[in-house]
Design a protein that fits this description.
Layout lengths: L11 E5 L3 H12 L3 E5 L3 H20 L5 H9 L1 E4 L10 E4 L5 H12 L7 E4 L6 H6 L7 E6 L8 E5 L6 H13 L3 E5 L7 H17 L5 H12 L5 H8 L1 H15 L8 H8 L13 E2 L7 E2 L20 E4 L3 H12 L4 E4 L3 H20 L5 H9 L1 E4 L10 E4 L5 H14 L5 E4 L6 H5 L8 E6 L8 E6 L5 H13 L3 E6 L6 H17 L5 H12 L5 H8 L1 H15 L8 H8 L18
Parallel strand pairs: 1-2, 1-4, 2-3, 4-5, 5-6, 7-8, 11-12, 11-14, 12-13, 14-15, 15-16, 17-18
Antiparallel strand pairs: 6-7, 9-10, 16-17
Helix pairs in contact: 1-2, 2-3, 7-9, 7-10, 7-18, 7-19, 10-11, 12-13, 13-14, 18-21
Keywords: Oxidoreductase
Pathway: Lipid metabolism; butanoate metabolism
Family: Belongs to the 3-hydroxyacyl-CoA dehydrogenase family.
């Protein structure tokens, strides 16, 4: 077996396919001092790529990131051709042609007859089998995957994909190249979607199916995932950016490999793609855009009316919060900071006083960080009255419970609220996974009961999932929506089913990440890095699992599996084993990682 080019000789690199991704990769290489041979069968594509590089480097000069002399050097290192024979002298060829086996395999056969024996051939696929493409080459040991993320100049992640045929020196050479380009290479095996897209597209598919079922509006699904998980984009907007047709192709490949129903493309993806509604590039997908290629969303028939017509609401001048934990004290703080008098009731006066003391500390931290004045903090604290029983809720207009996530406990509490609260009071549960209707039925007035799911920490997180049951009165729904706005939260509407929006989309993604580790496909560090660098996630899945708590995560996954009965939602065995061993995450000092004891 010939040794592949060492990293120092990967100087001349051919990029085949000068669409958005190919042009971006060419820019990264040229800026890093490589000689770049851009190849596309379309003269228009080559001219567009040259113009794009000229424009990008001109912006860099204006922003003083490049000198004019450096810009001239970058442009001189990028040459374009329409014939594949131009790749003859390349040390590395990166193909970024359409995601189609026939096209890519034909390209690899043609390259075999053109390039040197020591040239490394890389596919930029994010969905197709690298092994299958390598098998078509005369030198399969020199074929691997080099998956950049869009936009290539900005995104740090590069997945380096080995097949069972790939020679380790070839992997080492391109891995070193990726580092020299200022990228973060992550080594992964050959399976559809690799790590980042393998996790991302399952989540996007579920979001599309959720929208298709009319469970929630596109705006609410996207807002929920942005505000509830800190994601840079909502899933439906991201599908439009990626291309609905591209997403469908990736999912088809994933489903063919896994057989997992979570990867079976939602029918709406096929309907949109076949209608030519492929997202931003066509001007319409899940959303409608100003023009093809535009990122500006415009109103269409599905856009909610401004100042949604919810009808009459009930007056709310005082609020009761039941509970003494972090969530209860956080919610009480939110209402008090918005000017509502709050009764904070716990199982004893001592617990209620302790909860108010926790709020005082929270407000003190806000003052020390300059987010709040001492006068405002004192006023907020003065609006909170701690109480040792629910009897103190006799005059509140809105009662919000934030007690243990246990159905029997919540039902008992709501039976108590039913006896204590005045007629017409709105009763809200903050459950994140239990059926709201089961809580409502513990009262004689289920029409007054609604879900009001805050996210932790409540003072900081902007999202509230507003969960209507089949019995919730219209004016109760209108009241809670109105109150959310008054306390400066973003309400999203959803129906009464397990996980609501955020957890129903988040936890299958987390579960799939654990299954990747179980199958020895990738390590937790690689997966966390891939999702942060490739998906723009604020935390990797294993970081997040350890923060949330593995016991909490397992409980939510069990509820989702029980409700939807999908085998793909069955909690991973590794998660169950860790919970059984008492490894619950940061709170116990060990979960997927170990943490220093404080």
């Amino acid at each position: 077996m010939d040794r592949p080019s060492s990293q120092s000789t990967l100087q001349t690199i051919a990029v085949v396919g000068l669409g958005t991704m190919g042009t971006g990769i060419a820019e990264v290489l040229a800026r890093a001092g490589r000689e770049v041979i851009g190849i596309d069968i379309s003269d228009t594509a080559t001219r567009r790529a040259t113009a794009a590089l000229a424009a990008a480097t001109a912006r860099s000069v204006t922003r003083e990131r490049l000198t004019e002399q450096e810009r001239e050097g970058v442009l001189a290192r990028f040459r374009t051709f329409t014939e594949l024979s131009a790749a003859a002298d390349a040390d590395l060829v990166i193909e970024v042609v359409p995601e189609n086996y026939e096209i890519k395999q034909r390209l690899f056969r043609e390259l075999d007859a053109i390039v040197r024996p020591d040239t490394i051939l890389a596919t930029g696929t994010n969905a197709l089998s690298v092994t299958r493409m390598a098998a078509e080459s005369q030198r399969p040991e020199r074929v691997l995957g080099l998956h950049f993320f869009n936009p290539a100049p900005a995104m740090k992640l590069v997945e380096v994909v080995s097949s069972v045929l790939t020679a380790p020196p070839a992997v080492e050479a391109v891995t070193e190249l990726a580092r020299e380009l200022g990228k973060e290479p992550v080594a992964v095996g050959d399976r559809p979607g690799f790590v980042a897209d393998g996790l991302l597209f399952g989540y996007l598919n579920q979001a599309a199916a959720m929208y298709e079922s009319k469970y929630a509006s596109r705006e609410d699904i996207d807002a929920a995932m942005r505000l509830g998980c800190g994601l840079p984009m909502g899933p439906l907007a991201l599908l439009d950016l990626i291309g609905v047709d591209t997403a469908r192709t990736v999912l088809e490949a994933m489903y063919a490999s896994s057989g997992d129903r979570l990867h079976a493309p939602a029918p709406i993806l096929g309907h949109l793609a076949e209608a030519g509604l492929t997202g931003q590039k066509s001007g319409r997908g899940f959303y409608t855009y100003e023009a093809p290629g535009s990122t500006v969303v415009v109103r269409d028939l599905q856009t909610p009316l401004d100042g949604t017509l919810l009808g009459a609401s009930r007056p709310v001048s005082s609020v009761g919060v039941a509970g003494s934990g972090t969530m209860a004290s956080g919610i009480a703080q939110v209402f008090a900071q918005a000017g509502y008098p709050v009764v904070l009731a716990a199982r004893s006066q001592e617990k209620a006083d302790a909860a108010k003391a926790a709020i005082s500390k929270s407000l003190g931290r806000a003052v020390s960080k300059g987010r709040l004045t001492e006068e405002a903090a004192a006023h907020t604290l003065g609006l909170i009255t701690p109480a040792g029983s629910l009897d103190a809720f006799a005059d509140v207009d809105l009662a919000v419970e934030a007690v243990a996530e246990d159905l029997a406990v919540k039902q008992e509490l709501f039976a108590g609220l039913d006896k204590v609260c005045k007629p017409g009071a709105v009763l809200a549960t903050t459950t994140s996974s239990l059926p709201v209707i089961a809580v409502a039925r513990a009262t004689s007035r289920p029409h007054d009961v609604i879900g009001m799911h805050f996210f932790n920490p409540a003072p900081a997180m902007k999202l509230v999932e507003v969960v209507r049951t089949v019995l919730t009165a219209d004016d109760v729904h209108a009241t809670v929506r109105e109150v959310c706005v008054k306390v400066r939260k973003h309400p999203v509407d959803c129906g009464d089913r397990a996980g609501f929006i955020v957890n129903a989309l988040l936890f299958p993604y987390l579960n799939n990440a654990i299954k990747m580790v179980e199958q020895h496909y990738a390590g937790i560090d690689e997966i966390d890095a891939a999702m942060k660098l490739g998906g723009g996630y604020p935390m990797g899945p294993f970081e997040l699992l350890d923060v949330v708590g593995l016991d909490v995560s397992l409980a939510i996954e069990k509820v989702l599996h029980q409700e939807f009965r999908d085998p793909g939602l069955a909690p991973s065995a590794l998660l169950e084993h860790l919970v059984a061993a008492g490894c619950l995450g940061r709170k116990t000092g060990r979960g997927f990682r170990e943490y220093a004891r404080r």
